[in-house]
Amino acid sequence: MTIRVRPISPEDHLTFIASRGTASFLQTPAWAAVKSEWRGESLGWFDGDEMVGAGLVLYRQVPKLKRYLAYLPEGPVLDWSGDVAPALEAMRDHLRTQGAFGIRMGPPVVTRRWEAATLKAALADEVLTRLGDVPADYRDESAIALAGTLRSLGWKEQSAEGGFTAGQPKYNFQIPLAGRTEEDVLAGMNQQWRRNIRKAAKQGVEVTEGGRDDLVDFHRVYVETAERDHFTPRPLSYFQTMWDAMTAEDPQRLRLYLGRHEGDLVAATTLVQVGTHAWYSYGASTTAKREVRGSNAVQWQMIRDSLAAGAEVYDLRGITDTIDSDDPHVGLLQFKVGTGGEAVEYLGEWDLPINRPLYTAFTAYMKRRG
């Protein structure tokens, strides 16, 4: 099999994603417009005239040099179950011609899954401290073997805590939706989640969809959330760029949800959907009126709408692998476990140095930046 890689149009890129049913929203052409500080390129993998893969590459330039780290977040979209060597070698050869000194990718391959009951028991276990040490309910041996294949091809697995600020989480939390009804999903939640959803309804919380102009209100609450939870917020312009790029690609790609109580905005979130996969993207809530459970109401509406739109997965995105009760990060997992979903481990992010001295220097530079 001879695989060749070449640039493709955004239209061909989207057509291929549609043929696969879904792909990460980070692998859509629109994401290049969101990450405008990078140079984006849509690539196609071809076996003869047949396109067998697609990916979005983001090129990050080395300071003062026209050399780049080529990054494929949560991609590329390939058949990872077969012999991947020809596809990866063809990608390397193309990216080298574009000035890449190294490649970073995140194969969208699941290695292990832990169901809610398993997670609940693990969280109550005083001995266990890491999710990776908990026996999984599902383990894909072929996916785990892929890690060995990548190492044999010269790829290096990156630390989940590494210094690359665009890195994607290895562990995520997802609610399976395929073949389920709203009643099934609600029944799978714990008592606290169901109680909060009912309380929000009883208190009169109203959830509506907003438009681009409502991003201003969303951002106000988001900044408040950032101050309360001690993280650096993105500027309003980032969300406006995201809205423009993603809705231009598909009017339903990005949606804004607003939860109000007696006219006051108490919670706001964004939802992204590509084919059969939906993601909870950004969330915000006010300190005032937290007792009306606006965040639960908004989450439940997004889950219901995702089901209605044909999603098979509702993705609550990243978690850390801690299950240590003394670790402040464990609260995020405890919150998400209440939805009745499952923790998912991906293969992680992998690097291939092409020019080793430049790759080593750039890696050191990024670690210094933190």
Automatic annotation (TrEMBL):
Gene3D superfamilies found in the cross-reference section: 3.40.630.30
Keywords from the UniProt entry: Acyltransferase, Cell shape, Cell wall biogenesis/degradation, Peptidoglycan synthesis, Transferase
Membrane-spanning parts: none
Pfam families attached to this UniProt entry: FemAB
InterPro entries documented for this protein: Acyl_CoA_acyltransferase, FEMABX, PG_Glycine_Bridge_Synth
PANTHER family associated with the record: LIPID II:GLYCINE GLYCYLTRANSFERASE
Family: Belongs to the FemABX family.
Name of the protein in question: Aminoacyltransferase
Species in which this protein is naturally found: Aeromicrobium duanguangcaii
